[in-house]
Amino acid sequence: MSIKNKLITLKSHFDAAKLNVNGAKCKQRLVIIESDDWGAIRTPSKEILNYFEKNNIDVSKSIYKNDALESQSDLEMLFEVLLKHKDKNGNHAKFTANAIMANPDFDKIKETNYQEYFWEPFFETFKKYPEHQNNLNLWKKGMELAIFQPQFHGREHVNIKRWLTALQKNDSKTREMFEYKTTFSGVGDYSFMESYDWNVPSDVEEHKKIITEGLQIFENTLGFKSKSFIAPCYNWDTKLEPLLSSNGVEWIQGLRSQLKPTGVFDVYQPIKHTFGQQQNGIKFNVRNCFFEPSMLPSKDWVNSCLAQVQSAFMFSKPAVICSHRINYIGFINEKNRQRGLKDLDTLLKSILKKWPDVVFISTDQLSNYLQE
After folding, report:
1. Which among 306, 364, 341, 256 is positioned nearest to 20, based on CA atoms?
2. Under DSSP, is residue 362 helix (H, G, I), strand (E, B) or coil?
3. Each residue of 143-165: pLDDT tens digit?
4. Which helix (H) or strand (E) holds 30?
């Protein structure tokens, strides 16, 4: 390991310690991989990505360069890696697959001249893509194998009010992107993804309706209630928490700080949480390890993440690894998927070698292990 990477690893360890020193404890060494965005649209195809690049729409530093609705191959290859690794109890490595339940119905929205919003269930979106028709069956196969456990991420990964407003105002880039079946604004990395941000506090009431509907789609489609929730962009109003609790949600996944809306995009009130903290009938699970090879390809993500895992275990916390879907998507760029899966394989192998007593669980199982 180079001196630079050693310093990065040390920094990862000490930064993680700040997250882990407070909060509840777990008796066992738990590894939870929380992966967001499954079922959500991004860049629809390689051809459209090429269009972006030819028309000076800069996605070089954007998630839109590699991220897309997961294909059958993306799921199958991920499952192959997870099935290679077992913990001391015989459990395979598993993903808490935080899932979006719906995507915009672009055709219906256009028919109203952008005046009304319509959505379609994620499994209907699968049918419109060329390599995705069997995806829902693969999700269920992953559940049966106990390697892919969906949890609720939202009805859609779109701030409906702000997106529709831009479309109604005939914002040229937003309208152009709309024609290519994407919610990308065409400006930087902003794509109206902060679903539960608000312009005025009363928007929360609409968010409650959206979440209630999304949770119902989840249960109707997958056959069980989601026990955890992760807000898109880590952004939500605390007033949503009683509703989540009343619908069976036990855990909110997130970073150390909740980003509470203020009415201004990208200006938030940070609210710090600790692992196991209880509020409004819900407990908080704080992500303390990060594994995002697609976000910064030059970084040594394996050793950085291992240092964070070590810090978690030192303070009797679960190692909660944040690793978004984008890292495992090859539908747009196969090399992106190859890198992500190779590093994931190395990470899991290294964890099991260094801590052979670890237990792989999904977030919805966490209550069974919390030390009161």
Report:
1. 256
2. coil
3. 999 999 999 999 999 999 999 99
4. strand 30-38
